[in-house]
Design goal:
Elements: E1 41-42, E2 46-49, H1 51-55, E3 67-70, E4 78-79, H2 82-86, H3 94-97
Antiparallel strand pairs: 1-4, 2-3
C-alpha cells in the first residue's frame, strides 16, 4: 500500500512476493533474496481488495484494509530456495509444499 497525500484512497503495492517459512532464512534480515529462504518465494499474479478501500483515504479506509494475493499454480511463479537445491524433485507449486490456510466466507 502506498498512501497518496491529499487524494482519496491509496494505491496497492506494485511489487510483492510471498515467502513462507521466512523465519528459517539464512539471510541476516527479511529481504527479497529467495535463495536465502528454505522454500524460496512466489510472485502473486494479482491482488484483490474491497472496493470501499479504493475509494477512501486513511483512516476511513481501515474497516476495509485487507486483501488477498493470488498465487498461480505455475512453476514460473516460483523462485527456489535453498532446500530446492538439494531436493531437486521437490514441487514448486505452493499448494503442494505448504499447508493452505482455510478461509470460510460463509460466516454469520
Amino acid at each position: 500500500y502506498q498512501y497518496r497525500e491529499g487524494r482519496l484512497g491509496g494505491r496497492f503495492a506494485e511489487h510483492a512476493i510471498f515467502i513462507p517459512n521466512q523465519v528459517d532464512t539464512r539471510g541476516s534480515k527479511s529481504n527479497e533474496v529467495c535463495s536465502d529462504d528454505p522454500l524460496g518465494c512466489w510472485i502473486p499474479a494479482f491482488a484483490v481488495v474491497h472496493y470501499e478501500w479504493t475509494t477512501k483515504g486513511f483512516p476511513e479506509s481501515v474497516p476495509w484494509d485487507y486483501a488477498y494475493y493470488v498465487v498461480p499454480n505455475l512453476k514460473e511463479a516460483h523462485e527456489g530456495g535453498y532446500i530446492h537445491k538439494v531436493q531437486t524433485t521437490l514441487s514448486t507449486v505452493l499448494d503442494d509444499i505448504v499447508e493452505p490456510l482455510p478461509i470460510d466466507f460463509n460466516w454469520d
